[in-house]
Write a structure and sequence with these properties.
Layout: E1 3-5, H1 11-15, E2 22-27, H2 42-61, E3 66-69, H3 90-106, E4 111-115, H4 121-138, E5 141-144, H5 147-154, H6 159-166, H7 172-178, H8 186-195, H9 241-262, H10 286-306
Parallel strand pairs: 1-3, 2-3, 2-4, 4-5
Helix pairs in contact: 2-8, 2-9, 3-4, 6-9, 8-9
C-alpha cells in the first residue's frame, strides 16, 4: 500500500483500512526561534520530514501495510520564546497529543507513532506521557519515538555512527562543532539544508561559534542572552547538506529500531522512553500532585489542631 495522508482522504476510505496492518504517524513539534539563519518552523519542518522518511522506511519493511500520516501539531513546551514561538504548557501538549491518539484508538487504529524534533525536556516527557496513557487506556501501541534519539544527539552519542554514515572521518571543524551543539547549530542547520534548503539563510556560514556553561541553562531563554544574543548554540558554519544527508540516514534507522518492536504484535518489550521520563519534576502531573500534597498537609494540620 502507498503512504496516505489522513486529511486528504474521505472517511469511507479510512474506514476500509485493515487496522491490524495500518500504522499512523504524526509530528508534534513547536514553532521556536532558531537563530538568525533558520526559520521558527525548524523543529516542525524536521519532524514532518522525518515523519515522511520513517513512513518510507516502514513501507519498505512492511509493503503489505498501510501507512497513514496525520496533520502535525505546531506547539510545544520548553521552548525559547521570541517572536513566532508557539510555546504552551507541558500539560497542554500532553493533553493535545493524548486526545489525538485517543481519537485514533477509538477508531480502531492499533499502531500510532509520534515524531518530534524538539529537544525541550518537558516537551519530550509530555509526549511520552501521552503515548503511555493512550496505550494503557485503549490497549493499543502508541509510541513517541524521538526522545531517546534526541538525547543521544545532544549528548554526542552518535559521533562514531555519523562518521560511518558519512563514509569518511569528521573534519576538525565538524568535530569541534559537535561539542556543545545544542540548538540551531551543526545538526539542525545541516538537517534543514537537507530537508528545506530554500529556508536556510546562506549567512549561516559566517556565524561565529556560540558556547554555553551549564549554569546558563537556568536562565530563561538563555540562547538569546549569550554572546551575540542571536539565539543559537553551537557552530552553524560547519553545517552542510552532506552532513544533513548522513544524519538523515542515521536518525531514520535509529527511529526504525525503536518503532519496529511496537509494530510487531509478538514483541512484548516494545515500550521505550527517554531517561527524562523517570525524572519526577519533569512530569506534567507534578504541580497537581504537589498542590494535592500541600492541601492534605493543611487538612492534617487543621485536624491535628482541632483535636487538641
Amino acid at each position: 500500500m502507498s503512504i496516505l495522508r489522513i486529511a486528504e482522504l474521505p472517511f469511507t476510505q479510512l474506514d476500509g483500512l485493515e487496522r491490524s496492518r495500518t500504522v499512523v504517524l504524526f509530528a508534534a513539534s513547536p514553532l521556536e526561534e532558531h537563530g538568525p539563519h533558520l526559520p521558527v518552523g525548524t523543529d516542525l519542518f524536521e519532524a514532518e520530514f522525518f515523519t515522511q522518511e520513517l513512513a518510507l522506511r516502514i513501507e519498505e519493511a512492511k509493503p503489505d501495510w498501510s501507512v497513514l500520516i496525520g496533520p502535525p501539531l505546531p506547539i510545544g513546551a520548553s521552548a525559547f520564546e521570541q517572536a513566532g514561538t508557539l510555546l504552551v504548557r507541558a500539560r497542554t501538549i500532553r493533553n493535545a497529543v493524548l486526545d489525538y491518539g485517543a481519537a485514533l484508538a477509538r477508531q480502531g487504529f492499533r499502531y500510532i507513532l509520534v515524531i518530534n524534533a524538539h529537544g525541550g525536556p518537558r516537551h519530550i516527557v509530555a509526549l511520552e506521557e501521552a503515548a503511555a496513557v493512550v496505550s494503557r487506556r485503549y490497549g493499543v501501541r502508541m509510541l513517541s519515538v524521538s526522545g531517546p534519539i534526541l538525547l543521544k544527539v545532544l549528548c554526542g552519542k552518535f559521533v562514531n555512527q555519523v562518521e560511518s554514515s558519512l563514509g569518511r572521518p569528521l573534519t576538525p571543524a565538524e568535530r569541534e562543532a559537535l561539542e556543545g551543539d545544542a540548538h540551531a547549530g551543526l545538526w539542525e542547520t545541516s538537517l534543514l539544508l537537507r530537508a528545506r534548503p530554500e529556508l536556510v539563510d546562506p549567512g549561516f556560514r559566517h556565524l561565529a561559534p556560540q558556547r554555553f556553561l551549564l549554569l546558563d541553562v537556568l536562565r530563561k531563554n538563555y540562547p538569546l542572552r549569550l554572546g551575540n544574543k542571536m539565539g543559537y548554540i553551537g557552530s552553524p558554519a560547519a553545517a552542510s547538506r552532506e552532513f544533513g544527508e548522513a544524519a538523515r540516514r542515521l536518525l531514520v534507522e535509529a527511529a526504525w529500531e525503536l518503532a519496529c518492536p511496537a509494530l510487531d504484535p509478538e514483541d512484548e518489550n516494545w515500550q521505550t522512553t527517554s531517561v527524562l521520563y523517570k525524572v519526577p519534576f519533569l512530569r506534567t502531573a507534578l504541580p497537581y500532585v504537589a498542590s494535592l500534597a500541600g492541601a492534605l498537609l493543611v487538612l492534617f494540620a487543621i485536624a491535628t489542631w482541632w483535636h487538641r
